[in-house]
Amino acid sequence: MNANDHIHSAQMRLKDPGFDHVRGHRVEESTAHSRIALALAVQALADAAASSNAPAGAEQEWPEGVTARFLTRTGIRLNNQAATVDIRDDEKTATHPRSTALCRPCGWTKDHGLAYRGDVLRMAQEHANECTALPQPTA
C-alpha cells in the first residue's frame, strides 16, 4: 500500500467507521472507535505532510515526571501537541505509589495504585481516543 492508499483507507474509515471496507462487513463498536482514532492519525499525518507551513520540531518536550503520554483525538486531528493525556508515576515520592492520568484539555483524571498502572494506561488511551476538548490557549 502506498501513502495515497493509506489516506484513502483512512477517509473511508471516517465516513463509516463501523464498516470494514476490505472485508465487507460491520465491526464491533470498540473496533470502530479504534478505527476512528487510527483514521484521524493517518489524516493528521497526511495533512501535516501536505502543509508547507508545518513548524519543524513542533513536538513539545514532556513535562518533568510524565512517564507516558497519549495524544487526544483533537490533538491528532489538529496536530496540537498540547492536547494530551499525561501519565505520572509517583513511586519515588509517595508512601503508597500511584499512577495518575490527567487529560490536559478537559481535566479528566484517573488514578490507581502503581500495581494497576496497566489499567490506568488503558483508561487513558480510551479517554484520549474520545476526547474532543481543546487545550486552553496560552498567552
Molecular structure report:
With 139 residues, this protein is an alpha+beta fold. It has 2 domains: 3-50, no CATH class; 66-130. The protein has 4 helices and 6 strands; from the N terminus they run H-E-E-H-E-H-E-E-E-H. It has helices spanning 3-15, 29-50, 73-78, 117-130; strands at residues 19-20, 25-26, 66-71, 84-89, 98-103, 109-113. The protein has a 4-stranded antiparallel β-sheet. Helix 1 (3-15) crosses helix 2. The longest helix has 22 residues, at 29-50. The protein is globular and about 50 Å long. The chain starts with a helix and ends in a 9-residue tail after the last helix.
Question: What's the quick description here?
Answer:
With 139 residues, the protein is an alpha+beta fold. It is built from four helices and six strands, in the order αββαβαβββα.
Main sheet makeup = 4 strands, antiparallel
Strand content: 15-25%
Q: Report, as a whole number of angstroms, the end-to-end distance.
A: 43 Å
Give the total of beta strands. Answer: 6
Name the overall outline.
Answer: globular
Low-confidence parts: none
Kindly provide the radius of gyration, computed on alpha-carbon positions and rounded to a whole number of angstroms. Answer: 17 Å
What series of H and E elements makes up the topology?
HEEHEHEEEH
Q: Could you say which structural class the secondary elements and strand pairing correspond to?
A: alpha+beta
How many domains? 2
Number of helices: 4
Averaging pLDDT over every residue, what do you get?
76
What is the helix fraction of residues, given as a range? 25-40%
What is the topology, as strand order, of the major beta sheet?
3-4-5-6
